[in-house]
Amino acid sequence: YRLPAVAKIGETEYKSLADAVAAVPAENPTIVTIDLVSDVALKAAEALKINKNKVILNGNKHTITLDETDSSLEQYLEDGTSKKYGSFTMIKVTGTDVVFKDITLDSKDYRGVGLVVTDNGGTFENVDFEGKGSAHYYSAAKGLLKFKKCIINTCGYAVHSDGNACQIEIEDCDIHGWSSFGSSVTSATIKNSRFFASEDKHNGTLAC
Questions:
Q1: Which residue in 12, 92, 100, 205 is deepest, having the highest Cβ count within 10 Å?
Q2: 3-state SS, residue 72
């Protein structure tokens, strides 16, 4: 039995997103596009690490979500009224010039972090961030963080950045959740976007 491919680089198929990322050369001189060919379910304890440069992750309208057959997810469910955040991260980006497009990232009802951008910024276009009862999406980076035509729908942090010399650009987005930009953010440009209060304890919209 052959496991079906979940991603492709050109005509080469990969059984996991991690395998596709690993196939990108460490010293990559050109842009490499990883195309999703199906939905992907990640285990909470195994964050997808995008540590290569000049990578475009083209979702082709597919979804990256959590593997609900993973028994460890139970610890990240809401506990009565305490609403504890778990410690897992779905996707961690440390590469430079990384682009996400035409994709849904859905952490469902589990308390964790959907996306962390730690170093060099990134671009997100036509990305739907979901995690209505649960996850917050945290971006702490230097460089440019650009969101265009995105929907961010969380009950915690939506776009939060306190990275060194970070610039924020948000255009044509609907953002549900708490967004905040620290004093080290050098500029924030917001165009034609709407911010909505979350239902969580971070019941605000935007703070700079």
A1: 100
A2: helix
Beta bridge partners of 151: 128, 174
Which are the contacts of 46, defined by CB distance < 8 A and separation ≥ 6?
Answer: none
| Residue 71 burial (10 A CB sphere; 0-12, 13-18, 19+) | exposed
- Counting other chains too, the contacts that 124-128 makes at CB distance below 8 Å and 24 or more residues apart are 124/99, 124/100, 124/148, 124/150, 125/99, 125/100, 125/101, 125/149, 125/150, 126/101, 126/102, 126/150, 127/59, 127/100, 127/101, 127/102, 127/103, 127/151, 128/103, 128/104, 128/153
From the list 158, 148, 150, 168, the residue with the least C-alpha distance to 197 is 158
pLDDT per position in the chain (208 positions), as tens? 456 899 999 999 999 999 999 999 988 889 999 999 999 999 877 889 999 999 999 999 999 998 888 877 777 766 544 445 556 788 889 898 999 999 999 888 777 777 888 777 889 999 998 875 444 566 666 788 899 999 988 777 788 777 667 888 999 999 988 888 877 788 889 999 999 877 655 555 666 5
Give the tokens for residue 75. 């610890």
